[in-house]
Amino acid sequence: MPAPKEDYYRGAGRPKLRQKGEKLAPLSERLARIGLASDWDFVLHLPLRYEDETAIVPIGSLKAGVTAQVEGEVTLERVTPRSLTAEVADATGRLQVRLLHFYPSQVRQLERGSRVRLYGEARPAWGAGGLEMVHPKVRRALAEGERLPSTLTPVYPAGEGITQLWLRKRIARALLDVDLSDLMPEALRVKLGLPRLREALLYLHRPPPGADLSALQERTAPAWKRLKFDELLAQQIALRHSRALRSAARAPRLAPQDGGRLTSRLIEGLPFALTGAQLRVWKEVAADLASASPMNRLVQGDVGSGKTVIAALAACRAIESGRQAALMAPTEILAEQHYRGISRWLEPLGVRTAWLSGHMKGAEKREMSARIASGEAQFVVGTHALIQDGVAFHSLGLAIIDEQHRFGVEQRLALRGGSGGLTPHLLMLSATPIPRTLAMSYLADFDVSVIDELPPGRKPVSTRLVSIARRDELIAAVGSEISRGRQAYWVCPLIDENEQLDLTPAKTAFEEIRSKLPAASVGLIHGALPQAEKDAVMESFKEGKTDLLVATTVIEVGVDVPNATVMVIEHAERFGLAQLHQLRGRVGRGSEKSWCVLLYGEPLSETGRERLRVIRQSSDGFEIARKDLELRGPGEFLGARQSGMPMLRFASLEEDGDLIDLAREAAAEWLRTDPQTALRHAKRWFAQREGFLEA
What we know:
Low-confidence stretches: 1-17, 639-646, 689-695
Oligomer: single chain
Mean pLDDT: 84
Number of strands: 24
CATH superfamily of the largest domain: P-loop containing nucleotide triphosphate hydrolases
């Protein structure tokens, strides 16, 4: 008796169950889900693995753990509601076959007396001697004159209801229909020892018998190197082309007026001296601002390195040149901190500042928008509210975006909308250092400045790992630090990206800590609080009226309380490396010794264990970012996948850094000598993937 007629089908080599009566989506939709639309997509849809069906192995020669193809006669069969078992024999031995899920057609295939071909992994038979194959591929035996495949059989990533046989036929057709002629200059191909494109693709889709399977699986074969290099080369060409298009646009020249009097007065009035790194980066920014080509510069620096001062200096340069400057931050807390901090520097110099947030009432918002539109407001700070309908600048000369990876391309372009036919300069800030390979590959159309020096007097933060079982001891230790006049943060994890769910652990921690430290003033802040209440809680902590602040990750960036010397991160294993590093950077901002305590729950996953090991052993933001990239990949590392971002599908930033260097050099040379063919190469790879070249 066969199993119930449930519809089993194979995805990427694994059976998947579809509920009875459930309809499949149209084929085009199912293909789109796995990135298949054009013939070129099918050509680049490469196998996950390969099956060697080019030879038949005698059953008597099979070894446990080895995948092989055999042929023989079915000598026994047994069907139950739970399984189909059979015995297949040839002149050299016998093999057990077991199917746990099966079709009626498979029962017919394995009828006694049938001759069949089996492909699968041999393993010790369950409950009996000898070997067996569980769920092998079952086919009829070869007919007289019929030949075995002459190449390895590819197994492709497949979506719902899409069979391997259909994919193989569709990819074979695409390989015939697509122009696979080599666009790469022949001299470059020969110099790098790369195969031709057609040769590489045919090899990857149809490897010959005896092909090095480990090199194919590990993507180190010459054919793989060709595809990786082609992809990186296309990306570099596209990014350089984007830079060239931007250079053709015109921006207002923001050159020093009256000898740069406003910026000079700002530097003189600061309560600290600029570090050498800040002076170097300001010089780079100032040179860009003085150009008629729009600046596109990313200033990155570790937590507390002083990026805000660079933003304030750039804003002064725009204002003294008769233009407005705007700063957009991803959260209201961070935006307001920027507003208060920079206004404190600029307003004594006579600069008229404005603040715009989504929580403003209608009349207040209209009044602020009118000040921006008239030009009365020279420096404007806000959240996404700056790019909402009804907000127009009089003469924006500089757009500053903090934590740039949290904004998409469209949002950046909206703030940079332009004025009088001129494109404002763009300055982006990031406290998440970008690893070199990521910057070279994804940010090649940006100029990057690095503030690699912390202000003098900053002491390193000591990081400790503590099991959550010792939570009570830790609360007591934090109480001792508070009794010495210091302040502390206690951060609870964000769960499922849902602030409502986040309230329970934060509130529970708040109540528990308050009951165990009755002498301390304990505050609570989370994303679901009304803005006025958030502001009041933060102000109380900044002024030292609150000793310990229980918080969610709303305090991840931008909060500056020099008297805070302890950061406790509860269930630290749930946080990403960049988040942990950002949170740790909230302490150690004064002259006192500071601590970051990572409270972890057990059992720890391998990834969680590795994150905690890295953050405990390193305070180098670039090393942490490099490891974060390795653990998370570029898509997640860069934040929201930004429209036009050419995400790599084959090349690895960690493993193929040498190819990125070669691709950068080759892209520059190709664009110089034959730009039309170079752009054809880029469009072949990216034109249909989020319209990168048009972004």
